[in-house]
Amino acid sequence: MGTIRKNRIQDYWETDSMFGLRVSSENSSRNRFLLLLRALHFSKIPEQNTEPRKDRLYKIRSTVNLFKAGVPEIYYPGQDIRLDEFMVLWRGRLIFIQYIPKKRHKYGIKLNMNTNPHSIVLKFVVYAGILDNFGGNEHVQKVIMNLLEGI
Questions:
Q1: Would you give the DSSP letter of residue 67?
Q2: Which residues contact 43 (CB under 8 A, 6 or more apart)?
Q3: Which of 5, 30, 54, 112 has the most other CB atoms within 10 Å of its CB?
Q4: InterPro entries in the record, alphabetically (predicted)?
């Protein structure tokens, strides 16, 4: 689950202060999380028109926006933050798949993230190709300014 690795999903809700994560157990019950994980599914939405969509992330946009709105309510970062680039391994068919030869996962979906020193994600941007708001010229500057907005 994210960048903090545990052997089992249930281990994120351990009550022992040495092994458990307070963020997981204080904000969501384990059973509720497992139910959401089991029920989460993104399928094709019937389209009213045949016009091509400009938002390539339209299937998950509402979930991404919900995450972005919810994080500031449950967690406030300290003084130290990090900007990180992360590849989610993906070998399926996507038009915005990235190939970065120096990464461990060479093919995947590129995420730019704002994290704290303990690798808890505060904000992220999914790179969806040149059509998204962050593609084209000055890509890096646009991403950094978006990630630092509101801090």
A1: H
A2: 59
A3: 112
A4: PGBD
Torsion sign (Cα): 145, 93, 102, 3: positive
Contact 111, 86 (CB under 8 A): yes
Per-position DSSP letters for 40-82, written without gaps between them: ----PPPPSS-SPPS-TTTTTHHHHHHHHHHHHHH----S--E
CA distance 127 to 107: 13
pLDDT digits (tens, 9 = 90+) for 4-57: 777 787 777 777 766 656 665 667 788 888 888 887 777 666 665 555 567 778
Q: What is the dihedral of CA 34, 28, 12, 67, to 10 degrees?
A: 90
Q: Which two tokens stand for residue 50?
A: 């045949």
CA quadruple 110, 21, 60, 116: dihedral sign: negative
Chain segment 61-88, per-residue pLDDT in tens: 888 888 888 888 888 777 888 888 888 8
Cβ–Cβ < 8 Å for 90, 100: no
